[in-house]
Amino acid sequence: MPTRRRGLLAAAVTAATIAGCGGGDEPAGATATTTPAPAATASAPADEAQAADAGALRRDRFDSARAWKELTRQVELGPRPAGSDVLRGLAGRLRDELPRGRFERVPGHPGLRNVVGKVRGSKPAIVVAAHYDTKDLPGFVGANDGAAGTAVVMELAAALDRAPRPKDAREVRFVLFDGEEATDDSRPFEETGIRGSKAYAKRHDGELKALILLDFVGAKGLRIQREALSDEGLWRRLRAAAARVGAESAFPGGVGQPITDDHVPFLERGVPAIDLIQWPYDCWHQPCDDLTQVEERSLDLTGETVYELIRTLRKK
């Protein structure tokens, strides 16, 4: 297993006016190259968190059963690396199912395409994103690492498209990044990875209010702390949204490690961005990242929370 998940953060992010710190993310047992972030402190005792998880959410606007079906459909396709015929076929279906769906090419990377859609509203826009490719590894189907985030984005798009739109609602864009996974693990991750997000951030510079990235959001017993590079103010609003819908136990207090991921190109351009990623993840880039590691409940917790966050971001 490689000694790091997603390389060191570019120096430009350190200089940007964002919350968080630079550094890389190391799997458990690796030798870190930066000082780890402080350990998390739970926002509620374990028994209270378990009780909250067992109960029904206070909102029901996100169809977790449909999201789960989308996740399983992707996993059943098998490996879906960037540029593959399988991924191209998946991209066509996702485009057709997104509201106002279309492709955006990734300059400099022939064959790579971001899948984008939107619901109309005022600008600057909110982006909800995930990557839909999987690491090019034999037998790797990416149930949590790719399919889960994509499934939640797709169902959020459907839910928001059919919901009444307040007059002050912001435009919401749904973006599925191609080419997130690196092609050469001997080089820094950002050199051969996050290709789709770098292209989108550059092309739409100045158009965006915030980015909400959904990465590892499907694992059983969901517990996601703030990833250290993620914007502190936007993360506070996410946790407040989670509390309102009854999903607070899934987003406990504390700060996790910094991870170079698809949110970084947006942070570098001054866009407040957060990365919803449960890390460490034992099945990262392993064949065991299959349906046995994920559950519908986690998709529901994520979906209802992000829906509520988007609803409140139309203000200010």
Give a quick set of tags describing it:
316 residues; alpha/beta; Aminopeptidase; 6-stranded mixed sheet; 10 helices; 6 strands; globular; disordered N terminus
Q: Can you describe what's shown?
A:
The protein has 316 residues and is of the alpha/beta class. It has a single domain (11-312), classed as Aminopeptidase. The protein contains 10 helices and 6 strands. The protein has a 6-stranded mixed beta sheet, with helices on both faces. Strand 3 (122-131), helix 5 and strand 4 (170-177) form a beta-alpha-beta unit. Helix 3 packs across helix 5 (143-162), helix 3 (64-76) packs across helix 10 (296-312) and helix 5 crosses helix 10 (296-312). It starts with 10 loop residues before the first helix and ends with a helix. The model is unreliable at 1-53 (pLDDT under 50).
- CATH 2nd-level architecture: 3-Layer(aba) Sandwich
**Class by SSE composition:** alpha/beta
Largest sheet strand order: 1-2-4-3-5-6
Mean pLDDT: 86
Q: Using DSSP, what is the number of strands?
A: 6
Overall helicity: 25-40%
What count of structural domains?
Answer: 1
Approximate strand percentage: 5-15%
Low-pLDDT residue intervals, each spanning 5 or more residues = 1-53
- Provide the CATH topology: Aminopeptidase
Q: Counting H and I runs of at least 4 residues, what is the number of helices? A: 10
Q: Look at the structure and name the CATH superfamily.
A: Zn peptidases
Shape category: globular
Which radius of gyration do the C-alpha atoms yield? 18 Å
> What characterizes the major β-sheet?
6 strands, mixed
Reading the helices and strands in chain order gives: HHHHEEEHEHHEHHEH
Give the CA-CA distance, first to last residue.
Answer: 45 Å
CATH class: Alpha Beta
